[in-house]
Design goal:
three-stranded antiparallel sheet; seven-stranded mixed sheet; Aspartate Aminotransferase, domain 1; 14 helices; 42% helix; alpha/beta; 2 domains; 387 residues; Aspartate Aminotransferase, domain 2
Length: 387
């Protein structure tokens, strides 16, 4: 049976070189990086080397990298760490209405603790207007957190402009770059951010490991008490195999970035054009050009995305509807709702996210199956207008 994986925004297959880099740290170099003997020092050296590799990938310094269990923990550490530390200076945070649940739910939690949260809107292509961000800043504002690119529709935000505004007002900036890293150049100094979240399993690395970049001089309160691991910001024995795997994935992503980006953009643009040209009343969600190189987010009138997903799965094709974090929920996508799309249209969406292993033949196969499936579902639908 055909098996085509096009859900790379949910997770990626670990690269074989990543797996090979990790294996010795399960079998041979298994020591605790805090131990003083040779076993521990071998692990500690791997930790130092990995931190430098990841820092180089995003234009940071090694001491600015805190390893975590993934993007969600990195987001929590950034928001709560700043909020707790600066609560006597201010208790106001600015974010957007289309953030990942790791940000939205953390903001809700902080809101329940008495922090003020402002959710700036987006336009019908998912873009935040920096003017809206500046208008939301008050004397009490301590942090702005706007994602670098959206995990559903792939729209890339003007983070550099937002950082310039924030710096003028003396406000810190965090960005969730989980979807961006490895798909486009991400340099913390070019973006001007103070904190940035990364996840390994989105860049062909292992699950369960991520990182938070914290600009030198930015003070942050740790969320767990224990040892002095990770600059005393994240207590607990480090996941050395995972960290080594993340560093290897970052190294490979850096080497392949230009080629991967061009290749994926070609697949993406071809797929979008074929879908929109071949299926009546199909629409692209998100910005047409300011979008991730691998993101094809489309919706179809008069069909359910869940039905599309399941019928594609029966044809050997893996995609998603909404984001992986909320795809089992029947609630309409908060991202598409923020774009002004009506609920009936929201439920007919598909998120197709391409990876370096996908081919043009696979694109053609998926489009061909989509054409047939949409036609069949519309033939059964009671809401399709009758001519």
């Amino acid at each position: 049976m055909v098996q085509i994986y096009m859900d790379h925004a949910a997770t990626t297959r670990p690269d074989p070189e990543v797996v090979n880099a990790m294996l010795p740290f399960y079998h041979e170099f298994f020591g605790n990086a805090s131990s003083l003997h040779s076993f521990g020092q071998e692990a500690a050296q791997a930790l130092v080397s990995s931190r430098k590799t990841l820092a180089d990938f995003i234009g940071a310094e090694p001491e600015e990298i805190i390893f975590t269990s993934g993007g969600t923990e990195s987001d929590n550490l950034a928001l709560k760490g700043i909020a707790y530390l600066k609560r006597n200076k201010g208790k106001h945070i600015i974010t957007s209405v289309i953030e990942h649940p790791a940000i939205l739910n953390t903001c809700k939690y902080l809101g329940d603790l008495g922090y003020g949260i402002t959710f700036v809107p987006v336009d019908n292509q998912g873009l935040v207007d920096p003017v809206d961000v500046e208008d939301a800043i008050i004397d009490d504002t301590i942090l702005i957190s706007i994602m670098h690119s959206n995990n559903e529709i792939g729209t890339i935000q003007p983070i550099k402009e937002i950082s310039t505004i924030a710096r003028k007002h003396g406000v810190l900036v965090h960005t969730d770059a989980v979807q961006s890293v490895g798909k486009m150049p991400v340099n913390v100094n070019d973006l001007g951010v103070d904190l940035l979240s990364i996840s390994a399993h989105k860049i062909y690395g292992p699950k369960g490991v991520g990182a938070l970049y914290v600009r030198k001089g930015t003070r942050l309160q740790g969320l767990s008490q224990g040892g002095s691991h990770e600059m005393s910001k994240r207590a607990g024995t480090e996941n050395i195999p995972g960290i080594v795997g993340m560093a290897k994935a970052a190294e490979l992503a850096k080497q392949r970035l230009e080629g991967d980006t061009k290749y994926l953009e070609n697949l993406r643009d071809t797929m979008i054009k074929k879908i929109l040209d071949s299926i009546p009343e199909s629409y692209l969600n998100g910005h047409p050009t300011k979008r991730l190189c691998n993101n094809v987010h489309v919706r179809f009138s008069y069909v359910e995305g869940e039905s599309l997903l399941m019928m594609l799965d029966m044809k050997g094709v893996a995609v998603s509807t909404g984001s992986a974090c909320s795809s089992k929920s029947l609630d309409p996508s908060h991202v598409l709702a923020a774009l002004g799309i009506i609920p009936e249209e929201i439920h007919g969406n598909l998120r197709i996210t391409l990876g370096r292993e996908n081919t043009m033949d696979e694109v053609d196969y998926v489009v061909e199956k989509l054409i047939d499936i949409v036609k069949k579902l519309r033939a059964m639908s009671p809401i399709v207008p009758k001519n």
